[in-house]
Amino acid sequence: MTKKNIFDKKKFMNSKNQLVEHPRPYYAWMVFILSVIFSAYTLTLQFSPRLESILGQDKTQITALIYAMSAFYFSLAFFQIPIGILIDRFGSRFLPSLGIIFCSIGAILMSNSETHWGIAMARGIMGFGAAFAFLNGLRIINNWFKSKQFSYLLGIFIALSAFLTVLFKMGFNYLEEVLLWRKAMMTVGLSGLIFACVYFFIVQDSPGGKFSIYSQIKDRKEFWKNIRQVFNASHVWVMGLTIGLMIGPLFAFETIWAIPFLKTVYKTPLSTAIMYNLFFVLSYGIGAIFFGRISTFIGKRKLFVVLGTAITLIMLIIIIYPPYFGVLITSICFIILGFAASNISIGYTIVHEHNVPQVTATPIAVVNTFCVLFAAISQSLITVFLELGKQIHNTPEYTTQQFQTSLIRLPIYLLFALILSFFIKETYCNQRQSYEN
User: Fold this and answer.
1) Which GO terms describe its molecular function (predicted)?
2) Spatial separation of the C-alpha atoms in residues 111 and 31, rounded to whole Å
């Protein structure tokens, strides 16, 4: 065995042969990159097109449109657990390829939608397809790489997904300006169909045979026994609530309301507001890699989740309830916010390490359900309270006070997440191999 072998060989041996190095060591990275592209593709669809592009000059339909766009999140949340179980049972090739196709069909349908119901249906289809992306990526990391690399590679997965999403979003915005949003969505949908074919013909679920670390559980009874253990584990639910209360509402704010908030409260031009958001995304991606590596190095996970949640809470309060400190200080606040919030990605590693590797996608799906559900609920509630404030005060646009009143629930969510983070069970970076220990 060489040092370059990417597989953890300490405890896992084939019954007949010892594990040997895969004849194509680069193949694991190829599969990994394709899963990153899938994730970035779904994130681009999640954030596209811009509300202003769909509304045009008619701002009166913004509430109905936001509800229609939220169908993506509710569909994503509803299908997380069933899809996680399916990926654990049948692997990362056929079903995720089908997920890409559903995303593409949703984009094509949305490009032809004339009503809010049509947009909601298209967004729901996209949300179903997108439910495969993150779960599939973590399943591939689990199957193709060492267990000690999981947290670090999860950080790289999140970072690359974020960076690619920025590039894809810039490309989509260009198409939106040149072709308008309908043709841009059609183009993205057709591109997805091509990508689905590429993904299906290249990706394998695991190295297979004598190259595998974790083989799929063939026995149905044993598989469902492990699945039941996932749902009976209290740490999965605690981690799900912690991540959901922190990152769900935060991303709901960043994806929809951060730019309108900054333009209204800080009186910043659109380009500056976009820059602040970009700083958040980039620092989140860098932080996910950094803290994933550091937590593994020192052998502790829980500490980073607790401190990251606390600092995120402080930064969010400073951003939502200014005085405005100027471009430089505000930029630093958004960078610290993204860097601190990235610690929550370690929570996925904690859940993974608390469960056996053969059912990686299912516990992650439970956690992600909370995350997406809180994002959808937060997005809807922010809209409801903003509209209510506008009606009460009879104002044509949202005001600073209305934004700050509506967004007060975000620090409250983070405070509950901080409290729950103290109840997380530390793994000390050890991967569970059986539910018997």
Assistant:
1) transmembrane transporter activity
2) 30
Residue 11: other Cβ atoms inside 10 A: 9
Among candidate residues 7, 52, 87, the one with its CA nearest the CA of residue 180: 52
Q: Put residue 209 in one of left, alpha, beta given phi > 0 → left and psi -120 to 50 → alpha.
A: left
C-alpha distances in Å from residue 254, one per residue of 55, 58, 106, 279: 20, 24, 23, 11
C-alpha distances (whole Å) from 280 to each of 61, 74, 173, 378 are 29, 24, 19, 19
Q: Which residue has the higher pLDDT, 300 or 60?
A: 300
What is the CATH code for 24-51+58-151+172-205? 1.20.1250.20
Mean pLDDT of 150-172: 90
Is residue 17 scored above 50 in pLDDT? no
Q: Which residues of the chain form CATH 1.20.1250.20?
A: 24-51+58-151+172-205, 230-430
- What is the pLDDT of the chain when averaged over all its residues? 84
Closest CA to 43 of 330, 284, 260, 320: 284
This prediction has a pTM of 0.83
Provide CB contacts within 8 A for 309, sequence distance 6+: 242, 246, 340, 343, 344, 414, 417, 418, 421
Query: What is the C-alpha end-to-end distance of the chain, expressed in Å?
Result: 29
C-alpha distances (whole Å) from 334 to each of 162, 257, 277, 299 are 15, 15, 7, 28
Reading the block at residue 331, the tokens are 């930029």
Per-residue H/E/C for the chain: CCCCCCCCCCCCCCCCCCCCCCCCCCHHHHHHHHHHHHHHHHHHHHCCCCHHHHHCCCHHHHHHHHHHHCHHHHHHHHHHHHHHHHHHHHCCCHHHHHHHHHHHHHHHHHHCCCCHHHHHHHHHHHHHHHHHHHHHHHHHHHHHCCHHHHHHHHHHHHHHHHHHHHHHHHHHHHHHHHHHHHHHHHHHHHHHHHHHHHHHHHCCCCCCHHHCCCCCCCCHHHHHHHHHHHHHCHHHHHHHHHHHHHHHHHHHHHHHHHHHHHHHHHCCCHHHHHHHHHHHHHHHHHHHHHHHHHHHHHCCCHHHHHHHHHHHHHHHHHHHCCCCCCHHHHHHHHHHHHHHHHHHHHHHHHHHHHCCHHHCHHHHHHHHHHHHHHHHHHHHHHHHHHHHHHHHHCCCCCCHHHHHHHCCHHHHHHHHHHHHHCCCCCCCCCCCCCCCC
